[in-house]
Amino acid sequence: MITVTNLTVAYGDLVAVADVSLRVPPGYVLAVSGPSGAGKSSLLWAIAGAVSAKSGSVEVDGLEIVDRPRAAAHGVVLIPQGNGLARVLTARENLSMPLLAERKLPSDDQDRDEALESIDDIIAKALSDVGLEDSGDHLVEELSGGEQQRVAVARGLAQRGKVILADESTSELDSTNRERVLALLRDEADRGAAVIIATHDPSVAAGADGHALMDEGHLSWERRL
Ligand SMILES: Nc1ncnc2c1ncn2[C@@H]1O[C@H](COP(=O)(O)OP(=O)(O)OP(=O)(O)O)[C@@H](O)[C@H]1O
């Protein structure tokens, strides 16, 4: 459960998120739309622990989110706008980094090999789910914008979070891949994650369980969860 209570995020004097409250239970997909600069990314960053609240709070399953490392360890996955991939690493390496960071590999050689094989399996499935099973060894900078976006989605899915925050994750995709990614995000909700999608696309918002609008940091409801 994502619980945002009277959250305000500010950059100096600029208030990006103004006294926002919302709840997203496990199993639900919330779409957040609104004009450029409305505060959608800032709301997602605050839920991910990547920016601090000026006032108010964010909780995930009762744990207050105070910084990114603890949020990530608690299963809060952010698929950032602009992908956030390391361009000089391969797609597979980009997927492996958060998985390796969150696990302590066993010291025993055989146990370690098994753990690494299981990570390889998770990565192969995530890349296959986004239709990039043959692109794992490509450098990110060799991939198209839409392929990079799908790698970023695969990286998010591979982490099997309890919260998935997808920031404009379909903006560069053709309709087939947009439907594919939306179905994958729906699968995440069906497995028990709470999902928030920031989007400019009305068709993405229409497919969500609820739809919130942001404008100048304020949130209102188009369709409640
Ligand atoms: N790191 C930052 N420092 C200062 N101002 C920022 C920072 N990040 C965002 N802003 C400002 O905060 C406001 C909200 O930005 P935000 O990126 O959250 O909006 P958005 O709704 O996601 O926009 P878009 O749809 O264009 O991605 C904007 O005025 C933006 O310029």
UniProtKB/TrEMBL annotation:
Domain ABC transporter, residue spans: 2-225
Any one GO MF annotation of this record: ATP binding
One matching Pfam family: ABC_tran
Keyword entries, A-Z: ATP-binding, Nucleotide-binding
Keyword check for ATP-binding: yes
Superkingdom of the source species: Bacteria
InterPro entries recorded: AAA+_ATPase, ABC_transporter-like_ATP-bd, ABC_transporter-like_CS, ABC_transpr_LolD-like, P-loop_NTPase
Protein name: ATP-binding cassette domain-containing protein
